[in-house]
Model the fold of this input.
Amino acid sequence: MREPKALNIPLPEKEPKVSVGIVIAEDLKKSVRIKPCCKRCVVRSDDGIERLIEGWCDISLASGSKGGTVELTDNKGGKLHGSRLTIFSQRGKPERLFVDSITVGRGFHWEDEKVQSFTGEITVFSHKGFIVVVNTLPFEEYIASVVSSEMGKSCPADFQIAQSVAARSWAWAFWGSKHRDDPYDVCNDDDCQRYQGVTDGFNSCRRILSAATGVFLKAPSGAVCPAYYHKSCGGHLASPQMVFGYEVDGLVPKADMEKELSYRVDQKFQYFLADKYVYENAYCAPLNCTLPKSEILGGVDVDMEYFRWDYTISSEDLCSIAEDKFGLKGIKAILSIVPSQRDPSGRYCKMKVEFTDTSGEKKELVFNNQYEIRKFLHPKFLYSSAFEIIAEGKGEVSKVTLRGAGWGHGVGLCQMGGVGMALAGKSWKDILCHYYPRCEIVKAY
Ligand SMILES: [Zn+2]
Ligand SMILES: [Zn+2]
Done:
C-alpha cells in the first residue's frame, strides 16, 4: 500500500454523496449474505423486477448463460437475477441492512471478518469475477461512521470532532484517486478509511459532529489538506517526505507535546525510547492518554501497548515472510538485518537484509520505505518502523527482538495524542492546530 499523491482539490460547495466498497473484488468472494435489519426490504434488479425479502438471503455469482450477473436466493428459495441488484425498504426509504462476512483490516495483523449493518443504498454486482457490494450514502453520515469505527464511543467529544475534520479532509483530498479503476469512490478499510457502517457509537457520534458539519482543513496552497492520521506517534510526529516519499502541504514533523524536545529523536533514539520527559509530556503517553484502551480503541483494534512495545520474531518466521511476501526462493538463513536512515520521529526508512539460500548463495532484500520494513518484520504488519533492533545468533541470525515506539506511519493527527489533548481540556480547534499547524480550519457547507 503505497500512498498516491493527493490531488490539489478545492473545497466542495455542497455535501457530496460517497460510494463505499464494503465487499470488494480483492476479498475474492463469490457470494454474500444480507438481511434486512427489522422490516422487509425490496430488492430490485436492473431490469426493474422487484422481490420482497426478509431474513437472511444469499447473493452469489450466477453461472452458465447468466455469467457476469448475480443471483439472489431468499429464505424461501425464491430467486432474482440481474447484472446489478439494489436493496430498498418498502416505503422507498433505505432500510438498515446487515451484510455478513465483511473483511476488516485487510492484510494487517488485526484482519478479521464481521457482520455489519448499513444505512443508505446497497448495490450488489459482479466485478473482476467476484461479488462486490457498494454502499452509497451522504458524506456526513459516512464521516460519522469513520469516526466511530476508528475509535471507541467513550472518546472525548472534542477529539471526535477533530478526528472528523481530519477524516473529512483526507477523504476529499483523495476522492476517487485510490480507486480510479474501481466501481466505488473509497473502500471500507484502512487503505482508505475504516468504515463499519452503523457502529455502536454512530448515533451519538452524529450528534457530536454536528458542531463541525462541512468543516475542512485547508493547506497553505489553498487545496484541501490530505490530513493523514494514525493511532500513536510514540511521542514525535513523522516526516511525510521520509515516510511517503513526498512533501504533504501543511504537515510537519514535530514533538507530540506542548514544547519541542531539546534533542533530535533520530540521533538519540534509544534515549528517546526511555526518556522520562517524553513519558510525562507526550500527549499520547499512557500518563496523558489515560482512558482505558478498551474504551478508546475501535472495535477491530488489538488491545496492546501503543506508545512503547516489545516484539520478538524468529528467523524461521522471517525466512518464510521473505519467501511468501517478497518472492525469494529456497531461503535457509538470515546473515544480517541492517536498518538505516531514521526520520525525525525515529522511524526507519531503509533496511537491508542478507540471506543464504540452500545452495549457499547470498541473496538480499533492500527496503526503501517504512511500509516494506513493517511488512517484512511481522507475519502480518509491524506496528511502526520506529524501533531498536537486537539480532541474536552467531554468524546467522536466530531471532530478532524489537523495542519500538508508536503505531502507524506517524504523520498528521496522533489519535491517542488527540484523546490526551482533549482529556487535558483542549478544544477540537486546539487539537487540529497542534497536529496540522500550517492549516486553516474552514467551513465549506
Ligand atoms: Zn481504499
Ligand atoms: Zn502521539
The radius of gyration is 23 Å. The chain has a mean pLDDT of 91. DSSP finds eleven helices and 23 strands in the chain.
